[in-house]
Amino acid sequence: MKFTHESNTTKVPPVILEVDPKPVFYIGPATRENPMSQIRTKLLGNVYFNDSKMKWNRITLHFTGKAGLNIYAASSTLPSDVVNSQSDLQESSSATTHLETTVTLCDVEKELIFTHEKVIDFGFYLPPYLPPSIRTKHAFVEYNLTVICSSSGPFSKKQKDVKPVTVRRHYLPSPSSLIPSVEYHGVREWFEWSAEVPKATAIEVGEIVMALRWSVEKELVEIDRIEFCIEELETYRFSTKAGVHNLPPMVTQFPCTMYHPPTFSNSSETHFIRTPIPLISTKREPKTIRTHHFDPFLEISHRLKLAIHFIASTATVQPLELEFPIIITDFPPDTTADYFVNPLSPAQSISTMSDSSMVSLVQPVFASSSTIQPGGDEVPCVDLDLPEYTPRYESVQTTSTLPPASSSTAS
Hints:
Radius of gyration: 28 Å
Distance between the termini: 77 Å
Largest sheet: 8 strands, mixed
Order of helices and strands: EEEEHEEEEEEEEEEEEEEEEEEEEEE
Number of helices: 1
Shape: elongated
Oligomer: single chain
């Protein structure tokens, strides 16, 4: 008879890295013109040492970020210098080019001092111009924090542990922030209109509301109904020596809401047109809305589409279609950040963003090892010297062999 002894003990790694599971957040666009870009964002975490016999002589934290693009683009949508560089086998307008590249957004180091304690708490300051984390069908932005521990001597060892880090970027600091509106005007023969559209809105609000006023010659035509909806644009972009180029955007239109004006309305009345923000997937609309996003290869933006339908007694009148840009974002969670001030002044606290969010005013410290390569709102170059394949890129029209007349630049 054979006896076996089962042990419940499991082998614990000598070094374990733990980071705060909450996302790291920034406010405003990833540009140096952003007034909130001076806020220093800190990533909190711990390093646990489970081997008491091991003496580490060097402990290094590495924070790295990468952005990537992997997409098939129709040659007719690419600039002429790219199309002309294709092989003879792909001279037809239906050929596609495989765009694939990965760039480094940041690579920052921080040294920790080993004090023979079982755990070291750390606060890692992150670069201020990082684009948010995302992963779509054709692009990604991801971040990782790595701890590397090494010992010296004849039996030197090296231990490594990696943890992912999520970065979020918001465009409204708090629910109490004042959101300005943009006023638009227009005239179409017998119809004059004026619209006030908010520059941004948060998904927590649940709906988008715009104010619309109009004046119409009722002897000729009357307004029957107004269709109001949100459109999401997913635009992939890259840069070559000729400049920045945008591929045709992938447009998702969410369900429209209908507004019927009152029977007895005049030109002095203000009509509030509303449409919900789709946050829950349904059978009718399985896709939910995403917040505004901008990184080296991808831009997710939104616009409001308004279709005004008329009733005419004499002839058929075509609907008037209007489009207005809007930023759809979310509110950041309560957190603590450090702000830059004069190094000679003592640290002090002020309340910002919300009652429970405090920031400390301290002197800026720029890490010498912090190198921000193409990232944020900058556009890195894409390597076009890659194998080419023939699958079509979505539903891009390839009837024309000419490249786009002009290329859009990064906003």
